[in-house]
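Write out this protein's structure.
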Amino acid sequence: MLQMICSTVSQQVRTDPNLFQNTGELIVDQVLRAQWGFSGVINENMLVGNPNVTSLYAMDDALPYPFEWASYVLDDQRGNAGMNYTFNYSMSQDYIDQDPGSYVSFLNSENIRYFYDQYNIGQYGSIIDRFDFDNEKTVDLFAAYLDDLIEHFLFQNTTSEIIGMGTMLYKEINATYGFIAQTLPLQLASRVMASDLAAAGGSCTSYVVQSGLTTEQVTKVCNDVDFTNPNSLLILINATWYGGDYLTYVYDTYGFDAQTWAAFMDTSTDTTFGYMLEMTTLPSIAKQYSCHSSTNCTALELGALQWGSSGVTKNPAPEWSSTYVPTADTLAGWGDASWAPYNDVTRNPEYFFYAVNPDTQGTLDKKTAMRIVNGNQNFYGLMNKITCQSLMNAYYNKNSTITDLFQNYYRVSMPEFDLANFILSLRKDMQWRFFTNTYIQYTASELMFGYASNSADMLSQGSYYNGDNLGLDNFTSPIFHGVDGLMAST
């Protein structure tokens, strides 16, 4: 929860750095830590206009509640403790450090669990020793602060059912748009690259030999990498796209080193593999889909375009071979059956296929789709769990002030966009994607001895720092749920 809040606010800072003064070169993470721990952005007059507030909440209607520790302890209606109980910059850095190995960061769920375990049995000394709190009052304040955040960010003064729907909405966006954004950019690049290589007519050997590898090494590369197969090309594209372990694998397997790899990926000569990828393939994709950069598209651009309107698969460039980049309404089953990952997709991830009113509200234009799914832009992107929960809370409680903010933000380039229809469409897909059907028949054996739940597998995904469950046990035995009497002790 703290990580989601911190990520949301830090991205807001990045989108409008002109709000800040007296900071020299703006370092977003430092600004965020200063604001969280001791309202440093406000107290040190970093903001243009010197607003007399203790929280950024007062400056944006879409942030549902003051999130800062300092705002809590300085508020005479909440913590009412004074500046002596705020955290200095060093402490704030430690407490919201994004390090899974840290023993004091409250972005680590194990540390939160330790805090609650010790607090619930009154072991204040253990908490003070581990987290270096000043005194027992700080421990009590921090426990109350967490409860306050849970109430207003997770529960948001509403019901657990509505917050559950918000979490489901977040899972839905991740399972559809998120899947597309993670897979499509690289898959598209490898397919267009295969098309470009085929059109150029060069053999694998003609490209690899320019790296300076030995004849034996060149032969091994070309025995393993089929330039007519996009999946096979990924061996080389991954190495330059991601680097890291992928590049190490190419070095160790084929004998590349820094010098020969640099020659292979050289873009100064139009006959190299690197030139074909970086100067031909990626720019042609960017041109075809009108991406912001003329040299490459972002995952957000391609993912949103395909999710909202199937705009990638429906509109391949005419010069791309239909063997590699066929025209299609969906990614599901896209192209040759041997090319993962799309032939394993059994349910269409694009919005059109589950839109409630596909004839009038079945597509989302690129700009609208990008605003909906961008979790790093303001507070309206639905790749953020708290945002999804805020939207569901406002929708089900008929808070038109908040729902209008969402709808107007999404409508910037699509005035006919209807938020209620959009939410109903997502709910429609949630039902089938996560639960398959409203009614499921179980055998007597399954009811008595348990069964595996596909829903648990589907929902066990997300981000560790979002507090998502990444290892839900998919085994359940419903006959023993909520029993009383003798059965309760069996």
